[in-house]
Structure to design on (696 residues):
């Protein structure tokens, strides 16, 4: 049973990495912008966060630096696609390639650096409950922050006026424009918030999850987050569920391998992708529901006054 | 108006793409020796180098960045050792991050056209492109690490990493409390399986009750995944971890969880000073020096294969932690000395597979062909090899 508690704990931690990035991408996609540069932003944020942690010794500052780096890169992307109307997919891919190269370049002096002692966290009282304690209450605060963010985002999108405006911009920028909203600025803000959240995810990887810097260390998590957003039909709670599911199946298949279960590891390696897609497709199988949830103008440029 | 705007957009787009491409592309560095006083290296009396004027130009192709702290870093240390030893007789350069694909061929041709007459390719995937370029350039000498195809002007070299794994196993077997060891494997090829088995044999030599659990990530380099794999081994009760992947993630995870682990390929102490028990280090220097000397004095011949281990100084277990008690250190030293003088043969029967069948009868030592084809787990390793280890 102890192993089960540890599996849950590891699942929550693995899911958190994906959740931040996927929720961020959800925000900018809700505003109608697809940013394929997630992987690049996460890598640059990872090195920015790691460098900050090395010099300041403060993990929170490092996460903030990661968020800032992500937002900055997203802003550059935003200027290109929102004001200059470049192709969102091509610009996003360019951002991804640029981020991979740039992070390797600036990260060079940090490959041999190391961080100080990593703090361990526990919620007093709750952490000592058998089974539940080790499973749920000995996590890094960002794990709980991801859950809080999901709830806040769901409320924001569906219960607040600002969220309504954001969705309107993603559904029909022309109408939002006619109503007097600045579509471009709102989209830029959404893209930057998305970049910041991807940045937090990147910095979480290099500072908390796998605390060192090596080039290319994000290793595809950005792409998984992008796919997750789509398969979760742009709903925050489903994104979080998908992230945990992916993390959970990843950990479970490693656990099974360690136990010596007779399934080829290549098949098990495929499982997280398969399981996540399957579950999310099943719960989102109603095509009308997808149509309602998919931002109508996603990926399309907007020309005010046209 | 529209035209200018569009042009501008295109320029911006292409510009950012070009910048990205330039940054992800291979980076090349050249280093000429700065050592003024060349050490009196083997006074080659016979024939001096055929290319009479100038130093021997030697090029290296690396698969990763020099700063990877593992595989490529170890090769670059070897290159520097050779440069230091031979001084201004050689001029070395390297190209890092050369992909194991068609690009490698272009890089090798480039190296030839720049006048390099001895070229090292440091990863398995360069085998075919290197062979092609070698056939087109018979006057250039080619050295390929970890491969098996050769030519009149191309030979292969490798190190017995499994000897390092065995020595790590000796330490692991003595340090484990749970009697469960964990290995994060990369890709189930004979080399990696051999290392896992040797690690287990080393552990069993000091602790017969030890079991090894293996988790495959099916990649050489994916730090988050390596972390997750290591975490799951720890969750399953393993308290000493080893890895055959390219990043320090496993050591880091052990450090965070208060468990023990090893460094692989290079000294990784810095990545987890509390968890680090020792590092299995590859030392390519002696071979690179030998190859360059042979090229210099004209004794270099193609077609052969060199497989060096502890005996030749190519493998060692370094930076052994103070946590390792003196009696265990003595056992480790005995193993090291045994490997050095040849009295210890790791792959000598009786060895039983984990399906209970005998794979090596008592008294019989495995030859290199046997070692190169290992596709089974030895007794003590749990599970089956993915992809059918029959």
């Amino acid at each position: 049973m102890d192993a089960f508690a540890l599996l849950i704990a590891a699942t929550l931690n693995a899911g958190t990495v994906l959740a931040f990035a996927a929720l961020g991408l959800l925000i900018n996609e809700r505003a109608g912008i697809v940013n394929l540069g997630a992987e690049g932003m996460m890598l640059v944020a990872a090195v920015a966060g790691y460098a900050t942690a090395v010099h300041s010794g403060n993990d929170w500052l490092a996460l903030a630096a990661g968020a800032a780096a992500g937002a900055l890169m997203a802003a550059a992307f935003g200027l290109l696609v929102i004001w200059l109307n470049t192709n969102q997919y091509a610009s996003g891919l360019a951002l991804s390639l640029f981020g991979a190269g740039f992070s390797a370049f600036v990260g060079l002096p940090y490959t041999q650096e190391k961080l100080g002692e990593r703090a361990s966290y526990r919620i007093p009282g709750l952490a000592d409950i058998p089974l539940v304690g080790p499973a749920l209450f000995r996590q890094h605060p960002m794990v709980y922050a991801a859950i809080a963010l999901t709830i806040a985002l769901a409320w924001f999108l569906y219960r607040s006026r600002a969220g309504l405006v954001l969705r309107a911009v993603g559904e029909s920028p022309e109408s939002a424009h006619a109503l007097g909203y600045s579509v471009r600025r709102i989209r830029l803000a959404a893209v930057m918030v998305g970049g910041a959240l991807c940045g937090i995810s990147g910095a979480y990887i290099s500072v908390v999850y796998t605390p060192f810097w090596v080039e290319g260390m994000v290793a595809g998590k950005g792409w998984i987050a992008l796919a997750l957003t789509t398969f979760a039909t742009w709903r925050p709670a489903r994104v979080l569920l998908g992230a945990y599911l992916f993390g959970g199946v990843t950990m479970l298949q490693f656990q099974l391998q360690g136990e010596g279960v007779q399934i080829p590891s290549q098949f098990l390696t495929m499982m997280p992708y398969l399981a996540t897609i399957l579950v999310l497709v099943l719960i989102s199988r109603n095509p009308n529901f997808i149509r309602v949830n998919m931002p109508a103008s996603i990926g399309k440029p907007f020309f005010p006054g046209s | 108006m529209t035209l200018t705007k569009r042009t501008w957009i295109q320029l911006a787009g292409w510009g950012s793409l070009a910048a990205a491409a330039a940054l992800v592309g291979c980076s090349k560095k050249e280093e000429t020796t700065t050592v003024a006083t060349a050490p009196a290296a083997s006074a080659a009396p016979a024939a001096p180098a055929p290319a009479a004027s100038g130093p021997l130009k030697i090029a290296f192709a690396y698969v990763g960045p020099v700063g990877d702290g593992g595989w490529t870093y170890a090769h670059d240390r070897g290159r520097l050792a050779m440069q230091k030893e031979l001084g201004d007789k050689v001029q070395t350069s390297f190209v890092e991050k050369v992909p194991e694909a068609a690009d490698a061929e272009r890089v090798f041709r480039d190296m030839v056209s720049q006048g390099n007459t001895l070229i090292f390719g440091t990863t398995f995937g360069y085998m075919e492109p290197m062979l092609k370029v070698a056939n087109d350039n018979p006057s250039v000498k080619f050295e390929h690490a970890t491969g098996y195809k050769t030519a009149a002007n191309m030979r292969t070299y490798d190190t017995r990493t499994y000897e390092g794994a065995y020595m790590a196993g000796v330490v692991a077997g003595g340090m484990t409390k749970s009697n469960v060891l964990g290995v994060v494997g990369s890709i189930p090829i004979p080399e990696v399986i051999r290392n896992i088995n040797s690690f287990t044999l080393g552990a069993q030599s000091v602790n017969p009750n030890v079991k090894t659990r293996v988790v495959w990530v099916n990649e050489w380099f994916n730090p988050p995944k390596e972390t997750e794999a290591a975490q799951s081994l720890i969750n399953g009760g393993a308290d000493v971890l080893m890895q055959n992947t390219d990043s320090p993630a496993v050591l880091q995870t052990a450090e965070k969880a208060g468990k023990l682990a090893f460094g692989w390929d290079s000294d990784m102490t810095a990545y987890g000073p509390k968890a680090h028990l020792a590092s299995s280090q590859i030392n390519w220097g002696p071979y690179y020096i030998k190859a360059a000397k042979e090229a210099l004095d004209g004794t270099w011949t193609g077609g052969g294969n060199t497989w060096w281990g502890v005996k030749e100084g190519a493998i060692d277990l370094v930076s052994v932690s103070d946590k390792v008690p003196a009696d265990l250190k003595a056992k480790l030293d005995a193993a090291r000395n045994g490997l050095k003088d040849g009295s210890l043969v790791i792959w000598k029967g009786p060895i039983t597979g984990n399906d209970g069948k005998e794979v090596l009868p008592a008294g019989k030592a495995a030859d290199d062909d046997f070692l190169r084809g290992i596709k089974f787990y030895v007794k003590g390793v749990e599970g089956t090899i993915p992809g059918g280890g029959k």
Observations:
- The domain at 2-114+124-293 of chain A is CATH 1.10.3470 (ABC transporter involved in vitamin B12 uptake, BtuC).
- Residues 257 and 265 of chain A are 7 Å apart (CA to CA).
